[in-house]
Amino acid sequence: MIKNHRKIISFSLAFILMNMAISFAAAAVNPPPPDKPTLDGPTENLKTKTNYVYTACTSNPTGNRVYYQFDWGDGSVSSWKGPQDPDMPVTATHQWEKKDTYYVTVTAMDEITEKTSTSDPLEVHVTIKKIISQPASIPEIPESCDLLVDSQQTQGQQIQGQQIDQQQQNT
Hints:
By secondary structure, the chain is an alpha+beta fold. It has two domains: about 1-30; about 40-130, Sandwich (Immunoglobulin-like). It contains two helices and nine strands, in the order H-E-E-E-E-E-E-E-E-E-H. The strands form two sheets. Strands 2, 4, 5, 7, 8 and 9 form a six-stranded mixed β-sheet that branches. A hairpin with a 5-residue loop joins strand 7 and strand 8 (about 115-120). The longest helix is centred in the N-terminal third of the chain and has 28 residues, at about 1-30. The chain starts with a helix and ends with a helix. Mean pLDDT is about 80; it is low at about 20-25 and about 145-170.
């Protein structure tokens, strides 16, 4: 009877080991994609034509490095960023051209298996139109220090002359 128990135990152990080997082989043939990435960044009262920074991060069950691509919800996507070690954040900047509500997502891709997963959308509200003012005129840069001194003296004489004119008008 002991021989029969040994045969059963041996058979059971062989069966368990074979199942484990098949499971490992299946995992190697069909590895999982990276976990769903998290996405963080500003979402309310954003201005048009202003850069905003967004951060993404994910884990990867395979341990392989990860590439990230941001979809900005306005028809544009970033280039693939990375590869980045799993659990290490990556950042990207974007600006929107018009007021609207956008749904931003990020896709993570395993660098070896090329399997992907995509974040939940981040709802972004661009509600303020940025007014771009005319740039201030840039003063001419003198070619030498002598010209700089001459320019300052001329401006000083003009200012003194204006002050004299104003004093005469006030009297």
